[in-house]
Design a protein that fits this description.
Layout: H1 4-22, E1 29-31, E2 39-40, E3 46-54, H2 66-83, E4 87-97, H3 103-120, E5 123-131, E6 137-145, E7 160-164, H4 169-178, H5 186-197, H6 203-210, E8 228-232, H7 236-247, E9 249-254, H8 262-271, H9 275-281, E10 287-292, H10 297-308, E11 312-320, E12 326-329, E13 335-337
Parallel strand pairs: 4-5, 9-12
Antiparallel strand pairs: 1-2, 3-6, 4-6, 7-10, 7-11, 8-10, 9-11, 12-13
The chain binds adenosine-5'-diphosphate and magnesium ion.
Length: about 350
């Protein structure tokens, strides 16, 4: 067992040296950890995203293993790069180490960073290490390349609305963590917790949609087959509203079409809550919402599923702007404004 005291003896530079040994450098980074700044190869159109994670706000040590936390911290950033139509190149990690952190925890965390970096073919190319008087804090910045960035503002009236994967799984996983006495079938529990702790950024899916080279980022078809995209991190209803506002359109969503996994439905039924509500308002799904010209939608759907195995569902369409940004259409034809999403404050 390595004590916090040993962490103290190792010091900042000892720690960085250990982490450096855990990390591999991949194409696109000329000089990674070790100098005053990283040196990258030139990019066509650099895109940058960052995300902060604070213990007890965004994760709990008793719920999340450090390796999964490391993977998730990288995945959520790569999800933003994917949603822009980019490929990730380098990640930078600022870590504020609290008094409860030990070397074992930090090495597992970095093992998770490296696993995800390998999955998405990026390099951890630097960061900063500071002390926190209380909790662990992480900030991750990812730099990517998007020769033709796909914005939230590009949706056109007549486009179809596509979503990858299933919605609500992460919220269902969180509900299981919050209600430990609840019994659900083991396979459902394992699946939902994994979706909550270790989401996959839909990078390969976006690259398939755009027919994009994962190496050069070049698109096979210009203009791109996707007119607008975002990753669903705060719930479909709210995130779709962002897209509608940016694109000056309204989005109609067919409630009956929303892809909800059997595990999510089963868990909602056991808890007596609405799986639809998790799908619309639960956070952290990290699925992609895509707007695609209607004549291309079938091709895009097929390309994604063929390349990745991920299901893609048409859930609605872009219509001329009305007073409601997002309109839910129920099977009986009833229409309702979708309301708002989870707010962090
Ligand atoms: P400086 O004092 O010049 O800012 P540091 O001593 O903070 O440099 O960092 C030394 C090297 O280690 C740099 O390349 C930096 O990017 C890297 N680094 C520092 N902290 C981390 C970290 N938490 N994760 C990855 N790389 C780090
Ligand atoms: Mg320096």
């Amino acid at each position: 067992m390595i004590t916090p005291n040993q962490l103290h003896h190792l010091g900042e530079f000892g720690l960085i040296a250990r982490w450096r040994n855990q990390l591999s450098q991949r194409a696109g980074v000329r000089l990674g950890i070790g100098d005053d700044a990283a040196v990258l190869d030139s990019l066509q159109v650099p895109i940058v995203t960052c995300d902060g994670l604070v213990e007890k706000v965004h994760f709990r040590r008793d719920w999340t293993a450090p390796r999964a936390l490391g993977r998730k911290a990288i995945s959520v950033n790569v999800s933003d790069i994917a949603a822009m139509g980019g490929r990730p190149v380098a990640a930078f990690i600022t870590i504020a180490i609290g008094p409860n952190d030990d070397l074992e925890f930090l090495e597992e965390l970095y093992a998770g960073f490296e696993e995800a970096a390998a999955d998405y073919n990026l390099s951890i190319a630097g960061g900063d290490t500071v002390r926190s008087p209380t909790e662990l804090m992480l900030n991750i910045t990812v730099i990517g390349d998007a020769p033709m960035p796909i914005l939230r503002s590009g949706a056109q009236v007549g486009d179809l609305l596509l979503v990858t994967g299933t919605l609500g799984d992460s919220a269902a996983g969180l509900a299981l963590l919050q209600n430990p006495s609840l019994t659900v079938p083991a396979a459902a529990g394992t699946y939902l917790l994994q979706r909550h702790h270790d989401p996959t950024a839909r990078l390969a899916e976006m690259q398939a949609a755009l027919q994009m080279s994962p190496v050069t980022g070049q698109l096979a078809s210009v203009p791109p087959d996707v007119t607008a995209a975002l990753d669903i991190s705060d719930g479909l209803a709210g995130d779709a509203a962002h897209m509608a506002e940016c694109s000056l359109v309204s989005l109609e969503i067919e409630v009956a079409q929303l892809p909800i996994s059997p595990s999510c439905q089963e868990t909602a039924a056991i808890m007596g809550v609405s799986a639809l509500d998790w799908a619309l308002r639960g956070g952290e799904d990290y699925e992609l919402l895509l707007c695609v010209p209607s004549h291309l939608a079938h091709d895009v759907q097929e390309r994604i599923t063929k390349a990745t195995g991920t299901q893609v569902t048409v859930i609605g369409r872009c219509v001329p702007r009305t007073s409601d940004a997002v309109i839910l259409i129920y099977p009986d034809g009833t229409r309702a404004a979708a309301g708002s999403a989870f707010s962090h404050f």
